TrEMBL record:
Residues 90-103 form the CCHC-type domain. This is CCHC-type domain-containing protein. InterPro entries: Znf_CCHC, Znf_CCHC_sf. It comes from Collybiopsis confluens. It comes from the Eukaryota. GO terms for molecular function: nucleic acid binding; zinc ion binding.
């Protein structure tokens, strides 16, 4: 945008700060609508500050993970009380069908040796 502004200046066609700022904002994609609505109209008179805000917002958008990435990460970890798979085996008692966090024996303070865990399975 600043290159186009310089080209216009070379052609003896000046673009005011406000006009340049408005042109910059209206050239942004629709996904930037919430950012554009948050721009203070008083800041339109200083296009360099506006450009730095736009660049900062673009950097944030690139650094922020997508909602799909967040959902995938959340599904990797099961919360306490979630239903285990049929092959899940408790590391506390050795019985299949639950996690150690849901084990009644472990909660009651019972402990098992590795041999007893194998026998429980």
């Amino acid at each position: 945008m600043t290159r186009y502004r310089k080209e216009l200046a070379a052609l003896s066609s000046q673009l005011s700060e406000d006009e340049f700022s408005i042109t910059l904002l209206t050239s942004l994609p629709d996904s930037w609508d919430s950012f554009i609505q948050g721009v203070d109209t008083a800041s339109l008179s200083d296009s360099t500050k506006l450009i730095s805000r736009v660049l900062e917002q673009a950097r944030r958008k690139v650094a922020k993970p997508s909602s799909d990435d967040i959902a995938l990460a959340a599904n990797r970890f099961k919360s306490k009380g979630s239903k285990p798979s049929s092959t899940a085996t408790c590391h506390g008692c050795g019985r299949p069908g639950h996690f150690i966090s849901d084990c009644h024996d472990t909660a009651a303070g019972k402990t098992y040796t590795e041999q007893q865990k194998k026998e429980n399975y």
